[in-house]
Amino acid sequence: MVNEAILDCVTWKGALDGIYTSKSAYLWILDLEDVDSQSSSWRWVRKMKIPQKLCFFIWLLCHSAIPTNVLRVQRHCALSNMCGHCNLEPEFVLHCLRDCHKVHAVWDSFGADNFAWFWLENNIVKWIQKGINDIGTRFITIIWWIWRARCDECISLQVITTQMVMHWASMMASDIDKCYGVSAVSVKQVRWVSWVFPISNVTVLNVDESSLGNTGSAGFGGLLRQQHGEWICGFAGHYGISNNIHMELLAIFHGLELAWSRGFREVECRSDCLEALALVQGIMNNFYAYASLIACIKDVTSRDWHVTFVHTLREGNQCADYMAKKGALMDSSLEVFDTSPAGLCSLLIADAMGTSFPRI
Ligand SMILES: [Zn+2]
Fold first, then answer.
1. What is the Å distance from ligand 1's center to 96 Cα?
2. Residues 289 and 11: beta-carbon distance below 8 Å
3. What are 339-348's contacts with CB under 8 Å, separation 24+?
4. How far is the C-alpha of 148 from the C-alpha of 229, rounded, in Å?
5. Dihedral pair phi/psi, residue 6, rounded to 5°
6. Rounded CA separation 357/334 (Å)
7. What average pLDDT is seen over the chain?
8. Among 77, 196, 235, 314, which is least packed, fewest CB within 10 Å?
9. Residues lying with their CB under 5 A of ligand 1, a single-atom ion
10. Which PANTHER family match (predicted)?
11. Distance (Å) from CA 139 to ligand 1 centroid
12. 88 CA distance to ligand 1 centroid (A)?
């Protein structure tokens, strides 16, 4: 999309804002080396709200890099790879932390049987991820103390009982949750979100994007609704390969153009993408990758009408999500729908009834 106010210029292609930083260069190089699938997949380790030593411990576990006897033999640091606890099987990471019958008592007292995957998942990374997702901080502190107990027993011959492991793991989890200001991840509080009814005379434009990954086959879509959630019209389009921020901006642009063309002059544009909302409301950056498109959106909003931008959680934006997914599967670059697609009806009714959806 071209906007005459945005002149051609040289920009840094390693970042969407077109401005070079050493961080963006580093990420760009990582991308070039095609290690993104690995490096980005470890982001969840760095993002955990736990002490760094535990983050590092989790990372080592996921790489089978803690010095179990199997690893020590590989590195010629030990003669036997057998488990020092039971001496029945090689001491792989999962054996050490879960499968050794010496640690069964720890997990039994914790109630691991309540989790169907617990004894069945044999991929160490998936096992840890499921543990963190379903059990939370306590899972991490238990495996930490199981490992510490193992090391104490192997190195200093000090026996740490099941009760002591559970006690220290519990204390540590409690301290972590207090320090980091979060309750244990295992205690998930469900938040309920619904489509928000606007004040009278305001037409609501919900927009969304859909992309397969962040650079996959992409589409966008949205819909206009009246005060009580009544369908007015919708739109969707397919773009090909692009990223989600580009699609979100396209959705905003086409949604606003549609609202204007239908004669609505009090419009509330709702998006679940904070970044896109910041771009269309912020100071113009001519180096930005989609500067022309943003300038076009600003041109549309500066017409003689009243447009407000509102952030919505994605659970309150499900109808637009449906339209965007429809767009990603379409052949045409833009299509306007005067009647609602059949598959959207139940979501429209749910929104009009004020139905809340759980936010996980
Ligand atoms: Zn064992």
1. 6
2. yes
3. 340/223, 340/231, 340/234, 341/234, 344/223, 344/234, 344/319, 347/318, 347/319, 347/322, 348/225, 348/229, 348/231, 348/319
4. 57
5. -105, 110
6. 29
7. 87
8. 77
9. 83, 85-86, 100
10. OS05G0353850 PROTEIN, POLYNUCLEOTIDYL TRANSFERASE, RIBONUCLEASE H-LIKE SUPERFAMILY PROTEIN
11. 20
12. 6
Q: Number of helices (H) and strands (E) in the chain: give both, helices first.
A: 15, 8
C-alpha–C-alpha distance, residues 301 and 306, integer Å:
8
H/E element, 237: strand 231-241
Q: CB of 328 within 8 A of CB of 225?
A: no
Q: From the CA of 87, how far away is ligand 1's center (Å)?
A: 6
Gap from CA of 169 to ligand 1 centroid (Å)? 20
| Dist CA 94 CA 64 (whole Å) | 9
Torsion of CA 70, 62, 160, 110, to 10 degrees: -130
Q: 64-94 burial, b if ≥16 CB within 10 A, otherwise e?
A: eeeebbbbebeeeebeebbbbbeeebebbbb
Distance between Cα 219 and ligand 1 center (Å) = 52
Ligand 1 centroid from CA 89, angstroms: 6
Q: Which amino acid is at 6?
A: I
pLDDT digits 0-9 by tens, 201-231: 899 999 999 976 555 578 999 999 999 999 9
pLDDT digits (tens, 9 = 90+) for 97-116: 999 988 988 898 888 888 88
